[in-house]
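EI: anyone free to look at a 302-residue chain?
SC: sure, send it
EI:
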Amino acid sequence: MMGHILWPDQYKLQHLVIDSCIYGEYLDILQKLPYLRTLVMRNCTIDDTHSTLLLLSKFKTPSSLISLTISDCSFSLKNLTLLLSPIPTLLHLKLISHRGILDSFFHGSRLEELIRAKAPTLVRFEFFLSYNYQENDRFINLESLMDPFRTPFWLNDKRWFVTCAYVPKGSTIWLHTTPIRDCGIERLVRCEVSWIDNQCRLTQRSIDEIIDNTDDVTLTTFGLYYNQIGDSGAQYLVDILQQNTTLSILNLKDNQIGHEGAKRLAEALRTNTTIKEIQLWNNAILSSILDQLKKLDSRLKF
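SC: here you go
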């Protein structure tokens, strides 16, 4: 990519869109395009080596870049620090990342610390992070992810509002600012917790819409079959059922839900009078305890 840029002819370039680059090329772009204001790229590869720090130490003139968008970033939060270091006047940052691990990108306090230190002038911060449940993962509590984003820094100082969700299709965790536009994310049904309160709601609202604190009234029947959500996924639905007043039929067949997950669903039905039926055919429930579960609530169908 860098070999095709004719620097003398593009010296006053203000907007640049590229695919990917390495960190040295990123610094070269900032150094040789002093009028650059907006940079959009898919990813930047950064090595955790002494040579990377040496490259940054040679960067003498801070860039005047005001907007940076990275549409498929795979680097660590530590490496984001390296990206932000040469652009102290940044006003807009947008990050989209599908993470392989539930790392420090998901920690609101770490993000807050980084922004205070490396992007103090930032006015607009948009991010969308996703993480797919792995086979041996423990239950990921949405509230624990949301709490650090309910501090005065996020809600009052910056007014950046964050939402966290469990998406049954694919057993995925989403964490993102809201609204967030142009990130190519499919409109999926999800169990969602926001900065507003600690209520878990079922919604299919597009993530580019402003959130409210109501259930999606259009969701009266939810078919969630063949998704292998297991007992962990069932727990998110338990949180939904304890307060949802719109859902009447929930189809959970073929989802590897065991007796613990089914028992929690039955317990949630004690306070839910709207649900007429939860379909649990072909799950991982032992036949020896089916009668016991049926006695807990007749709306459970096996």
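EI: The radius of gyration is 23 Å.
SC: 👍
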